[in-house]
Write a structure and sequence with these properties.
Length: about 375
């Protein structure tokens, strides 16, 4: 077994890691294997990086022979016991189960039970379309954040390189195998701030500024929109723009701005218990029987689900689930729902904070 240690030229990361744990308590790790199943293949390299207070330092355990797999696993856990959190990329699906199966095969008692895991892949995969990434591979996330790596291989390309190395060791093959793992670890640290996008969807947003804006559309029609500026839980490492359902999002740094159409028109509020209402065709509205029972029977009839409503001309904002009630619709069969932009709501920062979160969730669900 060979142990390689080096200092990485990374002294900080633009993300508040303390929201997860003190940076010195976090271990970044990645493994290299000769296949996808623990029973038929082996681990030949484990890489880990940690922060020493000034720089990140990389440790790699390399099995020069297949039989040294046991040693590198034991050495890895000997280091891991000093940390509380472990960061990986898709490790929940591959790296961790692979190592755990190897431990069972060798009769080791090692486990990840005392390490809280942060799987960057699992955290960011639900939002890959929002981030406009072609897929959620680690190299794609690196490219999205503007990082370029020296290594051009993937793990599958290097399997035969390792088999050749075991039979005919060479410095060229050795350094090639180390480089790929080192770049994976380096990339893991560099994309750690991608958690800011996860936080944006899963932690509270804070409305900072709310205003109505009037503009003229392409057809020369004067329209209104809501401009909503919010502060984000963590600064975004790369700006992002997105739009869905006539709503626009622009996030950069610590802040994001939403543009949402304001609809000034007449809409209908539908009463739930239509059996308790009469419908008056002349007024085109429903009135509760306790009030309308004395009206001339000639002008009233039993309300139905489609006619049990009252109409109101006002300013409305769209919603895609029941965030604010009461909700209004254009007609009974319409799937679109809206809430009235009342004077009370206009002064409620809490409502607009929740509304920003509501819009983001709609955007994430739009694909």
């Amino acid at each position: 077994m060979r142990i390689i240690r080096q200092k990485l030229d990374i002294s900080n990361i633009p993300y508040p890691a303390e929201q997860i744990a003190p940076l010195q308590n976090i271990l970044f790790f990645d493994i290299e294997t000769t296949g996808f199943t623990a029973k038929r293949s082996s681990i030949y390299l484990i890489g880990c990086a940690f922060y020493d207070g000034t720089y990140f330092r990389l440790t790699q355990w390399f099995a020069e022979k297949y039989q040294e797999e046991k040693k590198i696993i034991a050495s890895f856990f000997d280091m891991a016991k000093n940390y509380t959190h472990i960061v990986h990329f898709n490790g929940n699906n591959f790296d961790i189960p692979f190592i755990q199966q190897k431990c069972e095969m060798y009769g080791f008692s090692y486990s990840f039970a005392n390490l809280r895991g942060v799987d960057l892949y699992r955290r960011i995969a639900p939002y890959k379309y929002f981030l406009k990434m072609p897929n959620c591979k680690q190299k794609s996330v690196e490219a999205f954040l503007g990082f370029q790596r020296k290594d051009t291989y993937n793990g599958g390309n290097l399997i035969n390189v390792y088999h050749d190395y075991v039979n005919n060791p060479s410095d060229a093959a050795f350094h090639l195998l180390l480089l790929h793992n080192a770049d994976d670890i380096r990339g893991l640290i560099q994309i750690f701030p991608v958690l800011a996008y996860y936080d944006m969807f899963n932690k509270p947003l804070r409305a900072k500024k709310v205003q109505a804006n009037t503009y003229t559309d392409y057809f020369g029609v004067e329209r209104q929109e809501l401009l909503l500026k919010v502060s984000l839980p963590a600064s975004l490492p790369a700006p992002i723009r997105f739009h869905a359902n006539s709503c626009y999002f622009n996030g950069e740094g610590k802040y994001a701005t939403f543009r949402v159409p304001i609809y000034q028109e007449e809409m209908k509020y539908f009463y739930a218990s239509y059996s308790d209402y009469y419908y008056f065709a002349d007024e085109d509205m429903a009135i509760h029987k306790s009030v309308a029972s004395y009206a001339n029977k000639e002008y009233r009839k039993q309300a139905t689900a489609e006619t049990c409503y009252t109409r109101k001309f006002s300013s409305y904002l769209p919603e895609w689930d029941l965030l604010v009630q009461p909700f209004f619709k254009r007609d009974y069969k319409s799937r679109e729902i809206f809430f009235e932009l009342t004077d009370e709501i206009k002064t409620s920062r809490d409502t607009f904070s929740r509304y920003a979160e509501h819009i983001l969730q709609m955007m994430a669900d739009s694909y």
